[in-house]
Design a protein that fits this description.
Oligomer: heterodimer
Helix content of chain B: 40-55%
CATH architecture of chain B: 3-Layer(aba) Sandwich
Largest sheet of chain A: 7 strands, mixed
Distance between the termini of chain A: 58 Å
Strand order of the largest sheet of chain B: 2-1-3-4-8-7
Number of strands of chain A: 22
Strand order of the largest sheet of chain A: 11-10-12-13-15-14-20
CATH superfamily of the largest domain in chain A: Thiamin diphosphate (ThDP)-binding fold, Pyr/PP domains
CATH topology of the largest domain in chain A: Rossmann fold
CATH class of the largest domain in chain A: Alpha Beta
Number of domains of chain A: 3
Number of helices of chain B: 11
Largest sheet of chain B: 6 strands, parallel
Shape of chain A: globular
Shape of chain B: globular
CATH class of chain B: Alpha Beta
Number of helices of chain A: 12
Largest interface: A-B, 42 and 47 residues
Order of helices and strands of chain B: HHEHHEHEHEEEHEHEHHH
């Protein structure tokens, strides 16, 4: 009997991929373990093996097709002697691309408001993913300053565990793109020492979960030494990598450290949502003379946004961005929380509630002025973040708003956060643990007494 | 620990030997004064004295050239004086005054001088080891022939990050000299109670790093070993480990009653192996200096140390506005 072979999920966050190359043709007899195809995910190009023996009956997806959803049938296998014609119609229609193309994920997110645009009206724009934006930022800064170098696990020959550093080894060579052993404490300490002695290292943590192994050097060595040396030893270094929950990787690999790092004087903390912020803020981070914790998000890496097409483009720290202007409530968020904030604002608009959406972008320094001005206008505030509830950024904002804008408030500030539990593995429980758009909508309705 | 050297042979000049005497004695007198000021309540917090270990840093500093770097732990006063930092600035930091190297914000354990290439002064045991390798990483990246002296104790030698660093230092051929100041006690825990291996430098073998044990109470032996290590590093051969067998006469910090060892043990080393007495004997026995010459040096040092203590008492506390400065570069 014929069996369908489905597009496999080859990473925790993969939802679709490109069928880069077929390595079998119709009529071939394949053995279990034989490689059927090369499939490009947003992280890597992977070989895909046959599980069972059989004869290739039909290829359902053309070579070079991108955007093939996980679980789409891609090939029909028949047993010896069987004809396959009957199964052919099962294949889902798949749009074939002209040529193997780089992964393009969801459609670009439109800028709803230009209220705090960081570029001049009429600037030419291009569409790029957050991943590409981060890569461009590093490459541009490395071209501009020979003291900038990148260090981390799999940043070089592997081309980056999340492909952020893809191609950088080819352009800059192993002196400046340094593959490290798996030894976070050691290489982070080395990078901090190198920053004191004239380099501007970028340290990539494969994810920020592993930076816990290096936390002493981030806090005690990098963040505090300028103060403890009476201003003699600044530490121009960027610690960057994926932060927060990915998908189905459970408690040790899913946590948002935004509030942890934001607590530490001496650090700058950046958590971009869009590709333009990722690029502009990473370039600022590399140029900054202080240690910068730059918190990225694996789920956002493949998201596309409009980015100004400028040769040199930076975004200053401490300047929030108003994504959407509104009059009834202020939703403050950052990082992937912005996804829920913007989705909620869309839903609320249909219910006649006008939400102003503020993206903090940097958590140290925080742009209190923009938040307070917005709250003074709307008289209501909901904060959104993925991190744990106790001691969250939302808690800090609520306290600041209470102290500085108490008389303007028509309702208590509600903080939407991840739940106060370690991240579970089970899909249904994981969904429950994360903050959701529905929760943001409910919180806004609550502060609007609707 | 080796026994007292026969005070005859040595290829050092009279000037160099006198210099060693002066520098080691300067550190000792400075530390004694710091101990006094601590007792008077002028120095607060933790204060770790270097008394007994002076030959290590003085012998190694004799092997350095301009541009070489050094980094160490919280027992750092001796290292700062030996690399040419001003006694007044160091003492004023101990008293938490604005004239200190860190404007009073770092204290005994956290002092730096970018000008003298002294990168601290670190309070977390073992943290300075990768930091030191990082200084060397920068020098190699920049293509100069500087080396970095990374000092740590027998206690730090059990920290995991030391071995992470050994691995990368050898893998990347970094010009770093790891100096283990084995004073035989990690706070109150003797080496015998904390490790089975008989040598600490030998652990480098697992990473392909050469090293040796040195009589750290003999400044000439220290210098000879240092020259060998520096030559190895500067020639681009990667890291080197020097395990300096030494001894601290005082407690771990000022608040340590040192009940984990006997008074006799300390007295025996002081009387038989003291680094300063050793050089003093060499000078006198070879007729390179008279008792009067040495007394003149003693008086000179006393004046310098007293002046440092006066400065440290008189220098004003940092302005209250300093609370908010230097958080960011």
């Amino acid at each position: 009997m014929a069996t369908e072979v489905l597009m496999p999920a080859l990473s925790p966050t993969m939802e679709e991929g490109t069928l880069a190359k077929w390595l079998v043709k119709v009529g071939d007899v394949v053995k279990s373990g034989q490689i059927l195809a090369e499939i490009e995910t947003d992280k890597a190009t992977m070989e895909f093996e046959a599980v069972d023996e059989g004869r290739v009956g039909q290829l359902l997806v053309a070579e070079g097709t991108s955007g093939v959803k996980v679980n789409t049938p891609i090939l029909v296998m028949s047993e010896e002697g069987e004809t396959v014609a009957a199964k052919a119609a099962v294949a889902a229609p798949v749009v074939a691309a002209a040529a193997p193309a780089p992964v393009v994920a969801a459609a670009p997110v439109a800028v709803v408001s230009k209220a705090s645009a960081d570029w001049a009206e009429g600037t030419p724009m291009k569409t790029m993913t957050v991943r590409e934006a981060l890569r461009e930022a590093m490459a541009e800064e490395m071209r501009a300053n020979p003291a900038v170098m990148l260090m981390g696990e799999e940043v070089g020959e592997y081309q980056g565990a999340y492909k952020i550093s893809q191609g950088l080894l080819d352009e800059f060579g192993p002196r400046r793109i340094v593959d490290t052993p798996i030894t976070e404490m050691g290489f982070t300490g080395i990078a901090v020492g190198a920053a004191w002695a004239g380099l501007r290292p970028i340290v990539e943590f494969m994810t920020f979960n592993f930076a816990l192994q290096a936390i002493d050097h981030i806090l005690n060595s990098a963040a505090k030494t300028n103060y403890m040396s009476g201003g003699q030893l600044g530490c121009p270094i960027v610690f960057r990598g994926a932060n927060g929950a990915a998908a189905r990787v459970a408690a040790q690999h899913s946590q948002d450290f935004a509030a942890w790092y934001a607590m530490i004087p001496g650090l700058r903390v950046v958590m971009p949502y869009s590709a333009s912020d990722a690029k502009g803020l990473l370039k600022s981070a590399i140029r900054d003379n202080n240690p910068v914790v730059f918190l990225e998000n694996e789920i956002l890496y493949g998201q596309s946004f409009e980015v100004p097409d400028l040769p040199d483009f930076t975004i200053p720290f401490g300047k929030a961005r108003v994504w959407r202007e509104g009059t009834d409530v202020t939703i403050v968020s950052f990082g992937i929380g912005m996804k829920y904030a913007l989705e909620a604002a869309d839903i609320l608009a249909k219910d006649g509630i006008s939400a102003e959406v503020v993206d903090l972008r940097t958590l140290r320094p925080i742009d209190y002025d923009t938040v307070l001005a917005s709250v003074m206008k709307t008289n209501r505030c909901v904060t959104v973040e993925e991190g744990f509830p106790v001691g969250s950024i939302g808690d800090h904002l609520a306290s600041t708003i209470m102290q500085r804008a108490f008389d303007y408030l028509d309702a208590p500030v509600i903080t939407c956060t991840g739940k106060d539990v370690p991240m579970p593995y089970a899909a249904n429980l994981e969904k429950l643990a994360l903050v959701t758009t529905a929760e943001v909508v409910a919180a806004v309705k609550s502060v609007c007494y609707r | 620990m080796a026994t007292k050297k026969d005070p005859v042979k040595s290829n050092v000049s009279k000037e160099e030997l006198l210099g060693f005497y002066r520098e080691m004695l300067s550190i000792r007198r400075f530390e004694e004064k710091a101990g006094q000021l601590y007792g008077m309540g002028l120095i607060g917090g933790f204060c770790h004295l270097y008394i007994g270990q002076e030959a290590v840093v003085v012998g190694l500093e004799a092997c350095t050239k301009a541009g070489d770097k050094r980094v160490t732990s919280y027992r750092d006063h001796g290292h700062m004086l030996a690399c040419g930092m001003d006694a007044k600035g160091v003492m004023a930091e101990l008293t938490g005054r604005s004239g200190g190297y860190s404007k009073g914000k770092g204290g005994s354990m956290h002092m730096f001088s970018k000008e003298k290439h002294f990168y601290g002064g670190h309070g977390i045991v073992g943290a300075q080891v990768p930091l030191g390798a990082g200084l060397a990483f920068a020098d190699k990246y920049l293509g100069n022939d500087n080396v970095t002296f990374t000092y740590f104790g027998d206690g730090a030698a059990n920290q995991g990050q030391v071995y992470e660093t050994y691995n990368m230092a050898e893998l990347w051929n970094l010009p770093v000299i790891f100096v283990i100041e084995n004073n035989q006690y990690a706070m109150g825990t003797s080496v015998k109670r904390s490790t089975k291996s008989t040598t600490l430098f030998g652990r480098g073998t697992a990473y392909g790093i050469p090293g040796e044990q040195v009589d750290g109470m003999d400044v000439l032996a220290v210098k000879a070993a240092g020259e060998k290590a520096v030559a190895h590093c500067r020639a681009g051969n990667g890291p080197y480990i020097l395990e300096m067998m030494t001894y601290r006469y005082r407690g771990h910090s000022m608040s340590d009653p040192a009940k984990y060892r006997t008074r006799e043990e300390v007295d025996k080393i002081r009387s038989e192996k003291d680094a300063i007495e050793h050089v003093r004997d060499l000078l006198l026995n070879a007729g390179l200096a008279s008792e009067e010459d040495l007394k003149a040096i003693d008086r000179d040092i006393k004046e310098t140390v007293n002046a440092a203590a006066e400065f440290a008492k008189e220098s004003p506390e940092p302005a209250l506005s300093e609370l908010w400065t230097d958080i960011y570069a």
